[in-house]
Structure formats: C-alpha cells, structure tokens
Design goal:
The chain has seven domains: 57 residues, Sandwich (Immunoglobulin-like); 111 residues, Immunoglobulin-like; 84 residues, Cadherins (Immunoglobulin-like, Sandwich), CATH 2.60.40; 104 residues, Cadherins (Immunoglobulin-like), CATH 2.60.40; 102 residues, Cadherins (Immunoglobulin-like, Sandwich), CATH 2.60.40.60; 84 residues, Immunoglobulin-like (Sandwich); 87 residues, Cadherins (Immunoglobulin-like, Sandwich), CATH 2.60.40. The chain contains two helices and 54 strands. The strands form 18 sheets. It has a four-stranded mixed sheet, with no helix packed on it. It is found in: Cell membrane.
C-alpha cells in the first residue's frame, strides 16, 4: 500500500509510506493562506483503492512583516488658528500580515517635533488613522510670522504598539504654517436709506482653499434679512436699510465642503446701520394746555414741551426750541420764555390779569440738528386761572396729618344751615388721595392736610383743584361755577432717606462648626432715591463675620463657638439687626472634675476604699452626659469601676497614678484621658 498527495502542495507538502504528511519547506501566509490537497491510497500495481480524500490546510499568520510607510517624507500645510483636532494631512502605512490579527493592527505616534517651542506639542496624530492636526496649543500659538516650518518624526508600530516586540517604521513630516484666510472682517457701517442701485457690495470672506461653498445666515431673527453671498465669498446688501427698524445685524457665514460639512467654525460679521437725519421732530400733542396762576412769579416753571425725534444718531435727534409768537401780546409781548434745549417753559413777566387776558396761545418752533435743517412748528395754549394762595412746599418726610394751609369759601345763605355749610373736596390733581381737606363746622374754614406719606421720587409737584360744595342740593336753576373752585400747587421737597431693608430683623440658625468662608445669609436694602447701597458690619465683637459691601452677603471669617455665645447679634449699616443662633455640635470632650484630687489613703490598706469621680462637658446636654468611665488595661488588677455611679474600689495593691478614659454617650464619641492622683 502506498499513498500519494496532489493539489496545492507548492512542492512543499509531502506524504510518506505510512501516510504521514510532512513539510519540506515553510509555508507563507502572505503567498497562500489556505492549501487544498487530495490524498489517495494505491496498491502495489498503482491502482487507487481508496480516495482521493480532500484535506484543507489553513496557514496561521505570524508577525514576520513590519509596517511600511508609503512615503519616507511627507509635506503638509496647516493654517494659522485652524480648529484643533481637524486633520490637515495624513500619513499612511501598510502591513502584509493578516489584517484580522494584531500583527497588522497599526499604531501611529509622533516621536519628536522640531522645533519644540516652549516644550509644547503643537501637533497631534490619530493613532489609528494617521491623520495629523493641530493641538489646542497649536491653534493658539502657530504663527507664520514667528515660525513657518516644523518637522515631525512619525513612527508606526504593529501589534497596536502595545508590545515590546512590535515591528516599526519611521517617516519624516515637513509642515508649513500659512496665514489663515478664514477670518471675520471688521464691523461694516452702512448708511440707512441709501439711494444707490442694489445689491451693493459691502465686504467679503475667503476660505483657505478653492472649492468651498459659502452660505449666509442670521444670528438673530430679523423682520427682513436683506443680505446675500455669492460663490466667491462676496457679501452684498440687497435693499436699503432703516436704522429705526434695526440699527445692527449680525451675519453668520459658513464655509462648507462638497458633502455639506462645515470646514471650520462659522464667522460672525457685524453690520452697523448708520443713522441719517430722515425723521422730523414730532411733538407728543399738537396742542397742549397748561394752567397759569395770576400770582405766578418770574422764573416759575409752567411745564416742559414734549417732543421726540426717531433718528438714532445724537446730532440728528438733538432738538432745539424757539418761541416764535404769543397771542395776544398783552399786557406784554414776552410773558413766557422757553429754554432752547431743555424745552422748559417759564414765566418771564408776572403781570397776569385774568380779567384782561384769560388765555394765551404760543407758537413754538422745534428743530433737530441744533436748529438745522428739519423744522417742526407747534402751538401751545395756556389758560389763566385766578388763584389766591401761593405755591406751597413740604418735605416728603412730613407726618400724616400735617397742616399745609387754611382755605375759606363764603356762602350767603343763613349761617348754621345745611345750605350754608361747606364741604371741601380735592377734585383733581390727587388721584391717590395724598391730601385731604377737613372743614371747621363753626367757621366753614378748610384745613388742607397730608393724608398719606409723600414720596418725592414718585410725585414732586401736585396741582390740586379743590371744590367747595354744600351738603344740600342747590335750588333749580343754580349751578356751581368757577368761583366755587380753587387751585393749589404743592411742591414736595426731596429728603435723603435712609435705605430700607426687606426685613427689619434677620435671624439665622447655623452649626457652630460651619466652614470658614461659608455664606450664612444675605441682607438686602433699597435706597428710595435709587442710589447705590453699601453695607458694613457693626458690633461684631468677636470678628467672626464679614460682609460683602456690595451684595450684602454675610460670611464667616473665623470659627464660631457656641460655648462662647449661642446667640450672636450684629448690626448691618444701612442699618438692620442680624441675629445668628449657633447650634451645638459635639466639639468638646468630657473632662474629669479634679476639685477633690488628690485622694489620700492609708497604707497598708486594711479594706477596700471608694473614690467618687465626676466628669463635665461644655456642650449641651444632648452632646454630653451620661458618660462612660473606664480604666486602662494595665490597672484593671488594682482597680475596678462601677458603671452607674463611677466609684472606684481599691483591691490589692496601691496605684499612685491612674489613667481615666471618659466617653460621652452620643452619636459622635469624644473622649478625654486624664490622671487621678491617689496617695
């Protein structure tokens, strides 16, 4: 019987006479990783008696091939300030070993960087793909004006670079740093209401390489977005702009690749719409009526002319006022004057007589750009009322019930009757009821008093109309007229009021072992005049606390101690009292009461002696007793201690110094170790 082998033997696979397969040369996985062969059995006449039998031989790969770079020198370009982690080039290596085994799993790394400025790595490589990008430090520091060329030495290892037996190869990478063209242009100013043919070129952006696709977006939602960008990165405004509609736009520009991916972070471009003088000044009312008293003094303010200009630019909306005409011009042609810039209308002649002139009409010119070029003409009317009482002034802190003045109206009916009695009522000028008028029933005299607390910051001037009425109705055909009313002007003087806290007293409970620097609470005060409030502490006698002068936050600056004081009260200026209660924590160990120490016994001992001991603890009761007493191990033969009352019983020998351990029975155990002297 003899055996034969055929098939993919490559003249390396043989069989001997006993049917054993053997190799006369090594197989190569890279040449053929599977060999299919057939084996037959033949008799002495070479006649096949069995077979052929198919046998598949799989060749297992070994790490006998090192990785090879496809180039020995690579060249790349990186842009200044390019995004960290975004690849700008790639190195590539291959390994002939089985790609499904670690033998062909490659790992890329940077051996060195030349120059290595400031000992900082400016570049990084993806260990799996070989893609090279800048690091965050590289994004910040790469600058072609300072250093344009860098060299990296790259190594690639198989076995994923995890073994000392890894095979490797090296390559050189030369990198040139170039200026980054993808930079936002500065703010662009565009005059509103342009008459140029649109679209108008305003600015441009450029990607670092040709082929980028540009897209334009808006950072905020605008009512209209009249901008566009073309394929070259040129940006245009498509319609005239209006600064009153929007004084600024923020454009967002994207550079995208062929797959619509962002090549870099988008740019933001600020567009400022420059105001021109295209809006005339407009008075709030075409005709406004002011009241003037007969006894007004020269310089008294009558009112302020209200006018606006929609132009945004200061010089375009800066208004100037001029008094053109007064009708009638009696008894003087200049009864009024107006400040050209504040529009404050004042009395310039105090010879008002209602019987002669009861109404004046003034014509005022309002112009922008300090008088040029837009002019707006308006007319104001002033009515004259007889008034017997001079204007009054009162401090805003005047008490409720303060008498402002006395007034009196007369009635020709029989005194003492309902037709003669007068009731005074504030009919106009006081919608919140700040004033009240009481009547003296005997004399019909009226007393104008403060009814509510005044506030200069809310109302600084009141023009009151006070009506005099009978409690009984008038007879048919008789009506109240202007002689039954009077007018009273009351000015409120400002008082520098103290800041007001949102609470008159603050109280906070904290643990005494609170961390130094912790915020305990925040006090808050408001100045009625709107001034900035600053805070400071007083009566902080232990210097435990500090306060932020601007925010009012009170923080600890030292350790608190409830055993020193359990209720700590300080004063905060702008003034309020703050009370801080300290909660006890178990921070004091118990201590032995040694007032009866030492204890004296006679020696030799004739009997057992008792020593009563006590312990104290500075903490509160829930962190103190009951205590547990014990004796250290070396004294247990000479002394014993009872659990209940703490008595020591002397046994055989004399111990001169005992170490006593005392434990408090609470959750967190503190103990003390003290000596008890026995003589």
């Amino acid at each position: 019987m003899q055996y034969t082998v055929s098939g993919e033997t490559e003249n390396k696979i043989h069989i001997d006479s006993d049917g054993s397969l053997f190799l006369n040369d090594s197989l190569d996985w890279e040449t053929r990783n599977v060999h299919n062969i057939q084996i037959s059995a033949q008799d002495e006449n070479s006649v096949t008696v069995e077979g052929p039998v198919n046998i598949k031989i799989t060749v297992l790969d070994i790490n006998d091939n090192k990785p090879i770079f496809n180039q020995t020198i690579y060249n790349g370009v990186v842009r200044q300030h390019s995004r960290p982690g975004r690849p700008f080039m790639r190195v590539f290596a291959t390994d002939k070993d089985d790609p499904n085994t670690p033998n062909a799993k490659l790992n890329y790394s940077i051996l060195t960087q030349i120059p290595e400025l400031h000992q900082v790595n400016l570049f990084q490589i993806d260990s799996e793909t070989g893609e090279i990008s800048s690091t965050p430090d590289g994004t910040r520091q790469l600058d072609p004006s300072k250093h344009m060329h860098y060299v990296l030495f790259i190594t690639v290892k198989d076995l994923e670079g995890l073994s000392v037996n890894s095979l490797s190869d090296n390559a050189k990478v030369q990198i040139e740093v170039k200026e980054n063209l993808w930079q936002p242009p500065g703010p662009v100013s565009i005059k509103e209401n342009s008459t140029e043919p649109h679209p108008v070129f305003i600015t441009q952006v450029r990607w670092n390489e040709p082929g980028a696709i540009y897209e334009l977006g808006e950072k905020e939602r605008y009512s209209k977005f009249p901008f566009m960008i073309n394929r070259d990165g040129n940006i245009y405004v498509t319609d005239p702009l209006d600064s009153e509609e929007s004084e600024r736009y923020v454009l967002v520009v994207f550079a995208k690749g062929k797959n619509n991916e962002n090549l870099e972070q988008p740019l933001e471009i600020l567009i400022l719409v420059e105001d021109i003088n295209d809006n005339p000044p407009v008075c709030v009312q075409d005709v406004t009526t002011f009241e003037v008293q007969e006894n007004e003094k020269i310089g008294n303010q009558i009112g302020i002319l209200q006018a606006t200009d929609m132009d945004r630019k200061k010089e375009n909306s800066f208004l100037k006022y001029e008094l053109l005409d007064q009708e009638p011009d009696q008894p003087n042609a200049r009864m009024f004057m107006i400040d050209p810039y504040s529009a404050n209308i004042q009395i310039s002649n105090d010879n008002f007589q209602k019987k002669i002139v009861s109404e004046y009409k003034l014509k005022v010119r309002v112009s922008d750009m300090d008088g040029e070029p837009t002019v707006y003409l308006t007319t104001y009317s002033f009515f004259i009322f007889t008034f017997q009482y001079p204007p009054l002034n009162i401090s805003e802190d005047a008490a409720i019930g303060t008498l402002m003045c006395k007034i009196r109206a007369t009635d020709a009916d029989d005194p003492g009757t309902g037709s003669w009695k007068i009731i005074y009522k504030v009919a106009e000028g006081d919608p919140t009821g700040m004033f009240i008028v009481d009547t003296d029933e005997e004399t019909n005299e009226g007393y104008v008093k403060i009814n509510k607390h005044l506030n200069f910051e809310k109302v600084s001037l009141y023009h009151l109309r006070i009506d005099a009425r009978n409690p009984e109705p008038l007879v048919f055909g008789i009506d109240y007229n202007s002689n039954s009313s009077m007018y009273l002007a009351i000015g409120v003087n400002n008082v520098n009021e103290a800041p007001e806290f949102d609470s008159s007293f603050y109280h906070k409970v904290v643990l005494e072992n609170i961390t130094v620097g912790s915020v305990i609470l925040r006090v808050h005060a408001i100045d009625p005049e709107g001034s900035l409030v600053r805070y400071r502490l007083e009566d902080d006698k232990f210097d435990w606390l500090t306060i932020d002068p601007n925010s009012g936050e009170i923080t600890t600056q030292a350790y608190l101690d409830r055993e020193v004081t359990s209720l700590y009260t300080i004063r905060v200026l702008a003034t309020v009292y703050v009370s801080i209660s300290l909660e006890d924590v178990n921070d004091n160990p118990p201590s032995l009461d040694v007032r009866n120490n030492p204890h004296i016994f006679c020696y030799p001992l004739q009997q057992k002696y008792h020593v009563r001991i006590n312990a104290t603890d500075k903490d509160l009761s829930h962190n103190g007793p009951p205590f547990q007493f014990s004796i250290q191990q070396q004294h247990l033969n000479d002394w014993e201690i009872s659990v209940v009352d703490g008595e020591y019983l002397l046994s055989e020998s004399l111990v001169l110094m005992l170490t006593i351990l005392i434990f408090g029975l609470f959750l967190t155990y503190l103990f003390c170790q003290q000596f008890l002297s026995v003589l």
